[in-house]
Amino acid sequence: MIRAFGEWHVVRDARRRVARGRYTALAAKGDTRDIKAAIDFMSWLDTHDIDLQDTTQNDLERWLVDHSSRHRTVVTLIQWAVARWLTDKLAITRPSKMNDSGFLDEQDLHDQLRRCLNDDTLPREARIIGALIRLYALPVSRIVELTTDRFHRDEKGAYLTLDRHPVLLRPKLALLIEGQIAQPVTDSRMRQQFGNGNGYLFPGKAPGRPRNVIGAHNLLNQLGLHVLSARNTAMIEAATSLPTIVVADLFGIHPSTAQRWANSAKDDWSVCLAARLT
After folding, report:
1. What is the pTM of this model?
2. Angle at the Cα of 179 from the Cα atoms of 126 and 196, rounded to 5 degrees
3. What whole-number distance in Å separates Cα of residue 278 and Cα of residue 271?
4. Could you report the per-residue pLDDT of 209-239, keeping only the tens digit for each?
5. 48 vs 70: CA distance, rounded Å
6. pLDDT per residue over 85-135, tens digit each?
7. Rounded Cα–Cα distance for residues 150 and 166 (Å)
8. Positive or negative CA dihedral for 72, 223, 227, 183?
9. Integer distance in angstroms from the first to the last C-alpha of the chain?
10. DSSP per residue, the chain
11. What is the largest CA-CA distance in the chain?
């Protein structure tokens, strides 16, 4: 059962995502968690001499009481099994990613941004990544893929191109990025003592590769600059202050995703969008 679930659902879906674009290390980690949760659940059924096809809602809820942290991950197996008539319909829903990680207070978000811009005791890469998350709601997977040629200066200021559009940077953030380009740090033991040309803004240990996404996540979380809650809050702020089409265009997300954020923020920019299209 686990082999069928892993090969025909998890791996097959992963290959589809690879074909559509980039399959990140975080996505692989999530898929691994789904398989581990499936193993745990099936092992629990074996221990209690319960066949999957005979699993009841009460059985599932008993398992969730003792494995509450697995709620998000086991839902993948349950939905797959129900869709294929391998078990009776079980009432389990996937927790919303939008609300699951929580949000920061608006003042906390701004305090953390000031910390990123001003606290010289923090690693420079953490300050830059943390600031980009809090200003532009960028996921870490996109930030580490940024290349140095996306940064430029002119007589009006410093700009960083996000997706297709350059955005004007705050002066302190621009200085941090210039320092990173001039002397990028690959890890605590090794520095590159040369300009990075059009390479990655955050080069990894392996030549020609960006910084590890999971490592960047862990670094920020260890410094108290939690990623998901900050990004959720930054996205909500953007959704409440900008039209949906602008949020999608600026941040490089699908318009339907931007609309969901706008709906979550109780803002409806459909009138503005209709006006733009007429």
Report:
1. 0.63
2. 100
3. 11
4. 889 888 899 999 999 999 988 988 888 888 8
5. 18
6. 888 888 765 544 444 457 888 888 999 999 999 999 999 999 999 999 999
7. 8
8. negative
9. 54
10. -HHHHIIIIIIHHHHHHHHHS---HHHHHHHHHHHHHHHHHHHHHHHTT--GGG--HHHHHHHHHH-GGGHHHHHHHHHHHHHTTSS------PPPHHHHT----HHHHHHHHHHHHH-TTS-HHHHHHHHHHHHH---HHHHTT-BGGGEEEETTEEEEEETTEEEEPPHHHHHHHHHHHHS-EEETTEE--S--TTSBSSB-SSTT-BPPHHHHHHHHHHTT--HHHHHHHHHHHHHHHS-HHHHHHHHT--HHHHHHHHHHTT---HHHHHHHH-
11. 73
Tokens linked to 162: 């996000």
The first and second tokens of residue 83, run together, are 């869709």
Which residue has tokens 């009138």? 271
Report the C-alpha gap between 178 and 219 in whole angstroms. Answer: 21
Write out the two tokens for 132: 């980009």
